[in-house]
Structure formats: structure tokens, C-alpha cells
Amino acid sequence: MGRIGVAYVDTPDGRAALDTAARLARRTTTPLQLITVVARGDAARPFLLGADAERAFLDTARETYEEALRRAAGTVPDLPVTWELRSGDVVETLAALNDVDVLFCGSRGYGPARRVLLGGVSARLLRRACRPVVVVPRA
Predict the structure, then answer these.
(1) Which residue among 43, 63, 96, 124 is least packed, with the fewest CB closer than 10 Å?
(2) Which residues contact 100 (CB under 8 A, 6 or more apart)?
């Protein structure tokens, strides 16, 4: 393996994915890459909120995500860890990753009814990914 990817968001399921990926990385002496995708603003929001408010919101989100990635990388000091923040459609961006050999992501465990209403990132990612994906179940 060259690199283990983790689709990371600072939530219980994101931390579970990182913990599971870190265990594999330790066993295989493989570096980790943490990736967070900031969704691009939707076209209706700037109209409703104004472009400046939208830009301020996205800047704040990026800063928050960068800090979360730094903290997450610090939780595995015994491993080589890189992290990056990307922007775009979350599923499409993660599905197109070609610089990791396997991608770990968490599952919020919505169940069938809530998944229909809210959408399931992991299910869509599994269908589109060009690399193997490990979905870590909700604890």
C-alpha cells in the first residue's frame, strides 16, 4: 500500500473512520492522508444571503475544517499523516481520489428511512469510487 485515505469530518463517525484506518496503517506501516471536502456554495444561497455572506461562511467553514484536520492528525503522532482540504461536490471529489489506495469513511447509520430523506454519502460514494472504500459502521 502507498497511502490510506480517510474522508474526515470531526464527528463521531469521522473519528471512528480515522481510528480504524490508523490501526491498519500501523499494521502495514502505511502513511495516512486525511481529506475533508468543503461543499461549494449552492447557487440559491448567494441570492438569499448575499455573495459576501456566502464567502464569509465558506471562509469560516474552511478555517474550522483546517483546524479539525490539524487536531485529527495530532491524534496519531506515531504515524506519518498528511491532510488536505478540497472543495467541490463531496461524493464526486472523494470518488475521484487517485492518490490513495483505499479510502475509509464513517457511516452515520441513518437507516433506510432517514437515508431516503437526507441522502447517504457513503452509499453514493461506494457506487462511484474508483478505489476500494471501507465504510466504518456507527458505534
Answers:
(1) 43
(2) 2, 3, 4, 5, 33, 131
How many CB atoms sit inside 10 A of residue 90's CB?
Answer: 19
> Grid coordinates representing 1?
500500500
pLDDT in tens, 91-125: 999 999 999 999 999 986 655 444 443 346 788 89
Cβ within 8 Å of residue 132, ≥6 positions away: 101, 102, 103
Answer whether 1's CB lies under 8 Å from 25's CB.
no
Q: Are 35 and 86 in contact (CB under 8 A)?
A: yes
Nearest C-alpha neighbor of 83 from the set 27, 9, 32: 32
Q: Give the predicted TM-score (pTM) of the model.
A: 0.82
